[in-house]
Amino acid sequence: MQETSKQYDQIISKCRSLFMNKMKDYGSAWRILRLPSLTDQIFIKAQRIRGLQQNSERKVDEGEASEFIGIINYSTMALIQLDRGVVEQPDLSLEEATQLYDAKIAVTKQLMLDKNHDYGEAWRDMRVSSLTDLILQKLLRVKQIEDNSGKTIVSEGIDANYQDMINYAVFALIHLKEK
């Protein structure tokens, strides 16, 4: 499991770097996005991954990896939005946004380590396509929870679903790297 932690950190380092560079280019313009908009952005990325996995012809020269990175970063933004709320104007500096990003990832990684311990790294025997399907399932759950005004009766909340999407996307990127 120590290898998983190291691989996780390597993947997140790449995602974090992209997040920071986009913050330098665009600032925190993403802070105006409502949760359903972020969910839809993640959904688009997951649908594209599924399409790439099913279709032999590609018309855009970007593979699955960049889309999984997008899922990680948009899910992290969604977790931040859950805590901070939506704003009318960008309000975070690069430093503040990076601190929030790191905090959300730290909690999400700990969740992964805990689940990974209990499940015995079962994800290592899964296919990338199955991880994609699980992300899509989580997205459909999030959409339903959003339609229910964020309320659940017996199920985990939106935050847990975003965390699972991050972790599934990291697992998929580890698999893609090992190919």
Shape assignment: globular
Structural class: mainly alpha
Main beta-sheet annotation? none
**Helical content class:** over 70%
DSSP E strands, number:
0
Radius of gyration using CA atoms only: 16 Å
- Number of helices, counting only DSSP H or I runs of 4 residues or more: 6
Give the amount of beta strand, in percent: under 5%
**What is the arithmetic mean of pLDDT?**
95
How are the SSEs placed, and which strands pair?
Layout: H1 2-26, H2 35-54, H3 64-84, H4 94-119, H5 128-147, H6 158-178
Task: Walk me through this protein's architecture.
Helix content is 74%, strand content 0%. Helix 3 packs across helix 4, helix 3 runs antiparallel to helix 6 and helix 4 crosses helix 6. The chain has 6 helices and no strands. The model has no long low-confidence stretch (mean pLDDT 95). It is mainly alpha-helical and 179 residues long.
Looking at this protein, list some descriptive labels.
179 residues, 6 helices, mainly alpha
Short description:
This protein is an all-alpha fold and 179 residues long.
